[in-house]
# Entry
Amino acid sequence: MSNDPALFKKERLIAILNEIAAEDDNYIFKNKVSELKTSILAPDSNDNGENGNGLIASLESSDVVIYRRDLLVAELDQILEAQTFERAKYYLKRLEKGVSQIKTGKVNDINLYRWKEYDEVITDSLWVIPKRDTSGAHLGWYWGNFIPQIPHQMMLRYTKEVDWVLDAFAGSGTTLIECRKLGRNGIGIELNQEIAQKARDLILEEPNPFNVKSEIVAGDAKVINYPETLERFGVQQVQLIIMHPPYHDIIPFSEDADDLSNSGTTEEFLADFAQVVKNATPVLEKERFLALVIGDKYAKGEWIPLGFYCMQEVLKHGYSLKSIIVKNFDETRAKREQKELWRYRALSGGFYVFKHEYIFVFQKKGREITEQTEK
Ligand SMILES: C[S@@+](CC[C@H](N)C(=O)[O-])C[C@H]1O[C@@H](n2cnc3c(N)ncnc32)[C@H](O)[C@@H]1O
# Structure
């Protein structure tokens, strides 16, 4: 059966569901549900003629509800297979709500009455994503970029349309390109002027069907004046922060002393990272989310858990931890070429070859953060 969305006449479908709901005889009730199922399975009979029930809407109709045929049929099957009449009526009521109403949470546009339709949204903490999304302006040219699926997923879960997303380490602009696709306004901070300009050019290549703003600001995320920067775009706060900092010195991004890939020791890197978090936190709306994407590193024969260290830093700034996602690591060309060498090193050195990185999801606490709570 097709799982493409089909267009149904909303009022007609609601009327049929209500008519079935009013039925007190279990046998007749189930017969009517079966009839509805048959007509959905055989859409050709859904015309307005003598035998049709006039359910199928045309593209021109204004009164339309879009439903995946397979899911609608699955809902009807659940009603038909319910153990009790009471349960069957409950499922029918739920289906009617899914057709007639929308129930979204505070931080996204997911319609909870129709949650089964969001196959695309990941809810597991282990992400094995075999291929980067290379659609649209995503070229993946920048060494150290992340796959677009990361900001895509974060935005689906933690933003509503036209919300503002701040990426404190914008790099090649992956987050902002994704913002355009999903209809979110985006601001990215990038230290390296040249990269910032390249990102701007690339973002402009992505169509902007929702007419959102996409701004890359060249600057140091540790000290940039966020209120002033946001004011330029007419906003005071953002609804999601994404941070994908350098994994300390694994990739040297520039020679700039303010670049986190040039922070001296691990402690200095963490202090710089903490400064970035402290600087951005006041402009994040209360109870909204911050996603930190980072991996660990090896140095002098030791695994340095940068991810967990950075997680601890964020937690000092008025956030609660919502999830730790482990994501498979994009194999870089260099790593692929050196695969055998890394395996030999692992076997001889007693360690494991990195295959994962983390996405830490935090929620900003509801109360205002004071110096006291920050310590
Ligand atoms: C891991 S990359 C981010 C890549 C990005 N997610 C993408 O998909 O292209 C980290 C970026 O942070 C930038 N950076 C380093 N220190 C910074 C700072 N103090 N302020 C702002 N950006 C900084 C680097 O130039 C680099 O582009």
Notes: The first strand starts at residue 5 and ends at 9. The pocket of S-adenosylmethionine is lined by residues 142, 144-146, 169, 171-172, 174, 189-192, 195, 220-222, 244-246, 253-254, 258-260 (CB under 6 Å).
